[in-house]
Amino acid sequence: MAAELRFDGRTVVVTGAGGGLGRAYAIAFAQRGANVVVNDLGVSRAGDGTSSAAADKVVEEIKNFGGKAVANYNSVEDGDKIVETAVKAFGRIDIIINNAGILRDRSFARMTDQDWDLLMAVHVRGSYKVTKAAWPFFKKQKFGRIINTASAAGIYGNYGQANYSAAKLALVSFTRTLAIEGASSNIHSNVIAPIAASRMTETVMPPDVLEALKPEFISPLVLYLCHESTQESGSLFELGAGFVAKLRWERSKGAVFKADETLTPGVIAAKWEEVTNFQNPDYPNKTTDLNLLELYEQAKNLPSNPKGDDLKFDGKVV
Ligand code: NAI
């Protein structure tokens, strides 16, 4: 059997840990020896009101089994105060789980500026502020682990969630850039798109499905990614109900055209099948995986693109 992955001596901040997924992470880290800052503003699903009760209850649960935890009631928008709580209580900060979140679902036609701005403030600015405050500690100690929380809605889009999905995909690119900038300092950053039973999903799923989607089924991957022995960084995972998978980008082989005055919209239309064909795809992983200048050199030697009467698309001259 593999040795238990432990977190003794490590300090973890879990944002939005007063319920749902965050509570499950906080308990799992504490069970494996970590010092945990249980952050929660105690708001409603839509982000209204505030209460210290949610965070206090989870701290009590952790203390009841002999774990180490303190509460913090700041909004993630005041990330520096949350990190300050960690450093004051435990003398260090090692792991950040950016988990706090709210929903303001509305069709795009009905979405207000406030629905948009609040979602960006909590998910994107909140993750930024907490991570920004921890970053200098991570750099100095040459160790840091960050988990950001995306969503399937962010990857694929979802009706009524233009604000939420935009915020969630922003966290994927945030994660990837932090992984690049943190690599030389042993700072790893990964992002998850979980699916789990919580107050966020309890109204949209039947009870037997919710039973299969326990938040406790998400924690193991989060803990694995945060362990000091884990090398994975910059990656996106979709998981829930015991399923765990990594996602990556796929790019069609694409079409190469002579890049001159004969490259017209009609030329693109005529080769649309080639542009969108995913047989023999590439799996680009960084900005430089597409060398446009090399492709341009290759394209220069192609014959001019067909024009006028030679070019037919859907039976029409284009
Ligand atoms: P939840 O509503 O049970 O927990 C979110 C917690 O964040 C709440 O306790 C809330 O008080 C807290 N919070 C909200 N705004 C805050 C702020 N400004 N500062 C500090 N705390 C704040 O929701 P759940 O399901 O546990 O979600 C956790 C994360 O996972 C969220 O980021 C959510 O978007 C994401 N997620 C959840 C999915 C699911 O299936 N449950 C699916 C995809 C993503």
From TrEMBL:
Transmembrane segments: none annotated. It comes from the Eukaryota. Residues 10-186 form the Ketoreductase domain. It is found in: Peroxisome. Second trifunctional enzyme acting on the beta-oxidation pathway for fatty acids, possessing hydratase-dehydrogenase-epimerase activities. Converts trans-2-enoyl-CoA via D-3-hydroxyacyl-CoA to 3-ketoacyl-CoA. Monomer. Belongs to the short-chain dehydrogenases/reductases (SDR) family. This is Peroxisomal hydratase-dehydrogenase-epimerase. It comes from Paraglomus brasilianum.
